[in-house]
Automatic annotation (TrEMBL):
Residues 243-253 have a biased composition (Basic residues). Residues 234-253 are annotated as: Disordered. InterPro entries: DNA_bind_recomb_sf, DNA_bind_recombinase_dom, Resolv_N, Resolvase-like_N_sf, SSR_resolvase. Residues 121-234 form the Recombinase domain. The lineage of its organism: Bacteria, Bacillati, Bacillota, Bacilli, Bacillales. This is Site-specific DNA recombinase. Residues 1-112 form the Resolvase/invertase-type recombinase catalytic domain. GO terms for molecular function: DNA binding; DNA strand exchange activity.
Amino acid sequence: MLVDTYIDIASGKTGSKRKEFMHILEGCQAKKIEIVITKNISRFGRDTVEVLESLHKLREHGVRVIFEQEGLDTADTDSELMISIIESIGQAENESRSENIKWGYRRHAAQGTSKLYNRKCFCYQNDTEGQLVIKEDESKNVRLIFALYLKGYSIVGIKRELEKREIKTPTGKEKWNKRTIDVMLSNEKYIGVVRLLNVGEHQEHYVSENNHPAIISKEQFEAVQIEKKNRSNVVKGEDGVQRKSRKYSSKKN
C-alpha cells in the first residue's frame, strides 16, 4: 500500500537541505515506513557517500529500499556492492572523469587490490586485516537453505521453513523475502568466488577464485544452479523467450 510520495526540489550542491528526505527518516523512526521505492540511484543522493549514508540510516530502522531503474533491492545481500559500483561510475561521468574512474576500478580489480573483493555479505565478516572470514553462527543457515533446495523445497517452502525455525533474515527480520533466498542460492561468494565489474557496461570482468573460505562446496552450488534451471518455466529458444506450460511444483512448497 502506497503511504506517501516525497519529492525534494533543491540545489544539486553538496550540503543543500533535503527536507522531504528528513520526513522519510522521521517516518522510519516512527515505524510508519517499511519500504522506500525510488526511481533510480541518482534521485537518492548526489554522490556515493550520500547514497550509502542514506541507505545505512534507513537500514538502521529496518527499512527496505528499492531502486526501480537499476533493479536493485536492499533485501538482497549484495545490493550495496552493486550500488557502490554503479553510483561511483555515474558520479564520475557527471564530473567528466568517468574514464579515469573506470580505469582505476579495472586496474585495482586486475591487480587484486580492490577492497571490493572483501566486501562482506551474509555469513561473512572482515577480520583485523580486512579479509573475509566465516561467521559460523550464520553459516549453518546458508548450508540449510542450499540443502533444503536440493531436497526439493521451493523458494516459498524454504521461506516457510526458515520462519518456522525462527531463523532471522540477513537484516535481522523474522519474515524472509523470496528474492533474498533466490539470490543467495546463486551467490558465488558462498563458494569462495568474487566477480567484479560485471555490471553490464564493462567489456571485461574479473574473477577471484578461492578469494575467501567457502561455505558451500562447488559441487553442491553447481547442483543447485542446474536444479534452478530445470525448475525455471522460462525457455530460451530460436524464437525468443518462451514459457513452459507447467511450472515447478513440490510437496514442500
